[in-house]
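A.,

Following up on our hallway conversation. Structure tokens first:
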């Protein structure tokens, strides 16, 4: 088996010599093209093309003192809500010539600290975390390194970092109000872990504090389709006269719908069902899932713009509240 001979990679000096400009000019073309004339940019780009020059992120960081990437720490990539948010976040960061590296934490605070430290070690200029519950070591890391950091998926003006997100308590109460307005009073709530997920914890606590006259029964299950299925099993064992099931996520609500249908329980004729998230597939279940829309795509755009302003102009972001909204579909109706 034969292969091509290894060719020495061109560097900045080679490009500068070929274009007849200084190394500093080549660096400006790569990092601040607007500061260089079009003629010079074309000369440098032509030299790069002829030499097959590939800019090195490491070399660029040494030259400019910047890596131009930020790190995002999220609990999981299995949930479509995080995928939608990260997709829009990465796309919008790209418009500001910033890149994104994502690390998952499994919702474990100690893991989050380890992953954050790794991101900082490889040069992350800023960090984005989910929620407001974190290990003390994370705050120490960010404070010691003076690292710009923001929290998303929540809104808390008093938090240590700028927050960009929605009111999780209001989202849960909006769902409960909808079911109550239809006449439901025996409502079972299926939710995910609350100790390691403050967003879910806030929703559950809001319902406990303001049940609105309804008899609520809570069931803790994994944040998954299987968790929704298991939740329905527990609901029917504990309170077979339940007229509505409120899931704190569309993922669990989808599993709940499967299990209700498997048991021959008509939705919404016998049991109404709703979730919170408004995932893309929720409009296409049968029946369509009533839910509360969380503006995660908008959150990605706003977070990217705010972080760019912070890094480029040292403009500390203000907390931003994004509005959630009720989306009524066919899975809810009046109790039989």
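Then the amino acids I'd put at each of the 336 positions:
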């Amino acid at each position: 088996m034969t292969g091509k001979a290894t060719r020495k990679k061109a560097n900045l000096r080679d490009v500068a010599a070929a274009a007849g400009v200084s190394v500093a000019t080549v660096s400006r073309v790569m990092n601040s093209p607007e500061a260089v004339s079009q003629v010079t940019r074309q000369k440098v780009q032509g030299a790069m093309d002829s030499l097959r020059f590939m800019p090195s992120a490491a070399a660029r960081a040494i030259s400019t003192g910047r890596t131009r990437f930020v790190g995002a720490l999220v609990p999981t990539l299995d949930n479509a809500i995080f995928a939608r948010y990260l997709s829009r976040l990465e796309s919008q960061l790209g418009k500001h010539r910033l890149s994104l590296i994502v690390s998952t934490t499994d919702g474990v605070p100690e893991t989050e600290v380890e992953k954050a430290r790794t991101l900082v070690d490889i040069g992350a200029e800023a960090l984005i975390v989910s929620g407001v519950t974190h290990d003390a070591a994370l705050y120490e890391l960010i404070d010691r390194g003076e690292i710009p950091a923001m929290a998303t998926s929540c809104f808390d003006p008093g938090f240590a970092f700028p927050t960009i997100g929605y009111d999780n308590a209001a989202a849960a109460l909006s769902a409960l109000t909808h079911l109550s307005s239809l006449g439901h009073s025996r409502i079972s709530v299926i939710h995910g872990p609350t100790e390691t997920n403050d967003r879910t914890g806030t929703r559950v606590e809001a319902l406990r504090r303001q049940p609105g006259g309804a008899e609520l029964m809570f069931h803790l299950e994994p944040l998954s389709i299987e968790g929704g299925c298991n939740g329905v099993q527990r609901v029917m064992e504990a309170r077979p006269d339940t007229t509505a099931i409120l899931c704190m996520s569309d993922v669990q609500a989808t599993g709940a719908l499967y299990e209700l249908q498997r048991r021959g329980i008509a939705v919404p004729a016998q049991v109404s069902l709703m979730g919170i998230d408004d995932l893309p597939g929720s409009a296409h279940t049968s029946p369509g899932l009533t839910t509360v829309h969380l503006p995660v795509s908008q959150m990605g755009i706003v977070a990217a713009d705010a972080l760019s302003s912070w890094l480029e102009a040292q403009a500390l972001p203000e907390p931003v509240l994004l509005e959630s909204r009720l989306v009524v579909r066919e899975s809810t109706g009046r109790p039989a």
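The CA atoms of residues 129 and 151 lie 5 Å apart. Curious whether your intuition agrees with the design.

B.
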